[in-house]
Amino acid sequence: MSDRPAGLPGEPAVDLAQAHAHGLSDQEFRAIEQLLGRTPTFTELGVFSVMWSEHCSYKSSRKHLRTLPQQGELVVQGPGENAGAIDVGDGWAAVFKIESHNHPSFVEPYQGAATGVGGILRDIFTMGARPIASMDSLKFGAFDHPRTRYLLGGVVGGIGGYGNCVGVPTVAGEVMFDAAYNGNILVNAFCLGLARAGELMSARARGAGNPLLYVGSATGRDGIHGASLLASAEFDASSEAKRPTVQVGDPFTEKLLIEACLEAAKTGAIVAIQDMGAAGLTSSSSEMAARGKLGVELDLDKVPLREPGLTPYEILLSESQERMLIVAERGREAELKAIFDKWDLHAVVIGEVIEDRRWRVRWRGQVVADIPVGALADEAPLYDRAQKPPAKVRQAPVRRAIANPEPRDALRALLDSPNAASKRWVFRQYDSIVQSNTVAGPGSDAAVLRIKRSRRGIALKVDSNPRACALDPYLGTIGVVVESARNVACAGARPGGITNCLNYGNPERPEIMWQFAEGVRGLADAARALGVPVVSGNVSFYNETEGRAIPPTPAIAMLGVFADVSAHMKQYFARPGDAIALVSTAKPSLAASEYEALFGADGAALAPIDLAREKALIEALVAGAERRLIRSAHDVSEGGLAVAISEACFNPQATLGADVDLAAHGLTGAVELFGEGASTVVISVADHDMEGASRLFAARSLGFRVIGRVTQQARLMLRPLIDEDLEELRAIYENALPRRLAGHD
Amino acid sequence: MKWGVVRFPGSLDDNDAVWALAEVMGQEASILWHKDESLGGAECVMLPGGFSYGDYLRTGAIARFSPIMKSIEKFAADGGLVIGTCNGFQILCEAHLLPGALTRNRTLSFICERVHVRVENARTPFTRAMRQGDVLTLPIKHGEGLYVAPENELREMEERGQVLLRYVDAGGRESDAANPNGSMRAIAGVANERFNVFGLMPHPEHAVEEMLGGTDGRKIFQSILESLR
After folding, report:
1. Mutation site, B14, B34, B211, B218, interface A, largest A CB count within 10 A
2. pTM (2 decimals)?
3. B48: domain range?
């Protein structure tokens, strides 16, 4: 087959200006001409522009990501497939990944967030795993910014609208409001699936002659250039006009697709399968071919279309949702088709795998694209972009006048701050219990899921700390990794695997590239020290609006494993009379704290982190849970110790109280009461377990101090500074978001 | 006892219902596919939660025309026991097997939380294992659960004892705050005049295991078991 692809009548001429309009640089355009030995057709130019976009090619990040620890005893599947997987015991593999959908969600919050959920679900069930839980890391602008309520309502509505309708519970997440995101919100969606360990599907094409089966929704004009123009460029005043590049989700079809694909996977007739996500048909076909060191030939006349008249360019670049591409075993197409028919979904053979390592596309009898597969994959550009550290890594915020509020007023203000307050307004809109596995849902330190017909279980949490990462992207990222690990350990689970979504500004700017490199270095060092592999991830660059970048925001999702999920711990005090104890590895700091955001900075640096001690703390918590020595454990985070103790009192059954002697333990300063950043856990222990519990921590040289008692009366006594009615505090904490959103529901 | 759980293409709690009935309650429970007309010899048919056909038009509006619904209508007419939870309740109302309709929550948003409901009539096949006035803790998760019916119809339903469950607070008292979706008369579950068809917005199948937060849902399944024993 040597017909040379030709342009189509009416298409724009391909030249450097056209390449620029497609987001390609001069060098990139020249490289394409060299790889092809000719000028690309307009269709081919479109294809290169998406496949070489930052979003698809990871051209700026690949070099750095290679340094992450990806190996481990439990790793079933590391990076390279649609998602990573670890062994969680009893023959089950946990398949998980997190991905950004930032720019679409800013342009069209409901559909942007909804399709973010849909996309990450498909990455999981293409692996042959049934999606069993979702979570999200969300960053919005300041609460009083005029767009924030609209974006919050849209994003939460979209996540719920999609997730609730596909029957995958949303079990955990985080939400933060900060003026730094006024012009560029972050929506990172995570999904976890379960599969039998030996039955994972692959996205590696095999066997020349095997047919390519297109399944799911028909192809329309939505989402064209979502990956290249929307995800891989900064925002400016024209961004609103990019709304047509946002896809529209149909969760009902997704639900059908999940059931049909999982049923089809059982037949053994699927050789490889991949979601038509970013860059749709182009990326799924070329990536499967590249992994298998083969080629593909596509016939666009066979592609189911939503409307007539789509050009090859549009068909290849469409990001219409709820579509999958399958490499089927030759001769078994009918068997697969019958399954998709049962679920009323399209299933059409649109091409085949070929020996020749070409990506060749036909339309109306002529070849419209013919590209070496490698050019779209391994030979895509790889950059080692310049980095420029700031003159001095400050680690400490600039000193600002500090208000020095009374402790009780500070506590009330923190409980009322949207960042520290209850996020019930958000998670109440998500189905968190469907599938009957949710042991602990949203509002907990980590979600806890049981695995049916097994004693095993899984804990999940996603964390980030952009304020700390803005001060020091390396130390800040380490802090996020250990916090996510500590959160799952507070539930009693052993940290087992990491997936990450790295959100940064424009990597072509050396100071941003430095932030990114430092973040990856922090992630690598922390993951290595904790012995937890990074099995999947996603990078989102160009989070900037009119030249202002977001603070570096690596979001770390941690998966923890329970040998026996019945030993899980809750964050709430459970019984009056139990001792309240503090376990910590360092002294906290007001740097990057919510207190600092509200009342001003004292100029202190971030709390230091000793990774060996962090690991010891995590081990002690897991051992304490397994031996059932600890009644409750709650990580100190936004708002510091005083907020953490209050939250531990907010037991869903009935509010309990705490009587703590701060003075006797030197905890009366604002830093001790409201500081963050140090690894500190508030635990409660029954008297008869006190000796065993304290030995757990002492054996690991961890500070363990009994500071008070759980009381029946719902009063927060932090002697001698605070004596408050906890029902009143609980009302402040629960009403902070609804009060601000009243009338905007 | 033999249970049939209907699976529409967009059913979501179908597997959970089978799990609750078969694995937790030790019953024989199987899935009934919406394109089939056979009820497989089920003694009680359950319509589970979900989004039957995507429900972009109106919840349950398309599901009522599916082949399986013809059989269910006949089964109910012959006195067979039918229970619909959440989307199942919506479908039963659309099919006129139950009075009234379910509309968008007054908050206009989806609500997922545990609520309290009071048993208003314990002399029915769906509530006989409980006492009138008992308070159950059950989860709800829906966007359209605001129960409406004409005032005169509501009055008649109340007189006949067709209101089986009402939203209340933990102490069993009615209040506006305890009514999560704004349902008329705080109605959470109703039966037909013959008391063989029951629809409720809460999910008893999601309240059968202590580890997952409570077991009050069993009392409803237990009632059905006792009434067919």
Report:
1. B211
2. 0.95
3. 2-228
